[in-house]
Amino acid sequence: MNEIGKNIAALRKKKGLTQQELGAKLFVTDKAVSKWERGIGLPDISILEKLAEVLDTDIYELLQIENKKNIKVEKILEEERVKIRKQLNRRNIILAIPIILIILVILFKLLPFGYNIIQVEYGSNDNSINLGVPKFSFLMKHNENSYSFKCLRGSNVLKSELKNYVNKLEHITCNNTAYYYDKESNITIVDYQVENHILYNTITYDVRYGNYCNMLKINEYGKKLGKLLAFFHYENEDEKIHIAFLPGISSDSKVFEGIMQVYVRDEGDYYAIERSTGIYEINGNVLTYYRDDIEVKGDNINIPVVSNFIIENKRLKLEENYLSSYIDEVVLK
User: Fold this and answer.
1) Tens-place pLDDT, residues 87-114
2) Which CATH class is domain 3-108?
3) Does 115-210 carry CATH code 3.30.310?
């Protein structure tokens, strides 16, 4: 409320008039009177004299100016209106600031900004891996295979950005579960989630080094065989035959490789009747060996492309004995 508005309100109350009664005498609404008194408007010069008359005063007293010669009331009113407009603009700006801030916060929480690929430490050997982290995340925490980040943005948009990131990785499946393998960093994201809090959200990655499905398979095969790179063999001096199967794994831990060697003795010397390489897999208690390359093949032997071994107590028993002309039963231990 400016000084003119305060003065109009004081004179009206002194006369015992309500805003509605004063407005009726001036042929204006009570809302117009309210605006004058609150300092967000001024009466037109055309009704200023009538207002002064109703309030038993004069224009000069009403506007709180000295009665001097050459006083231009209209100019004074215009100057007061300019002041009022500036005050209203300033007030509107102040009122708009929180609204603008709220809109910006809403946009910040709802709009997708994408993610950054950042490098983080992994393990205790100064290894580093890459992770896709939504933009504007902060306060990373690392605990063994778990990484967490805080972010003020909305949970739904964060979930969408994490999904976009993992979908660009290689999808691998084992145990009826899908995982996400990053070839470049050689890590598998086994789980990711966004946890809601009141003021922020927490992004969490559960990470394993290497191809997780292959690691699970390595552990499974190792338990069934005793260990990978175990040497399964049969050697009997009386039957003059030596059989060996070596199950292993490729250097990148992706392919399970096998080597099969069979030697027989003739006149004190051993010579190969089979030397082959290939891959193998284990389903249940059956190890299946697929020969990719047969480097050496004896004349009196028909080497199959595929051989199945029954796993019993860390031993391999050949199902279809293609070496029956040399030995009745092949059991490698």
Assistant:
1) 777 888 888 888 888 888 888 888 899 9
2) mainly alpha
3) yes
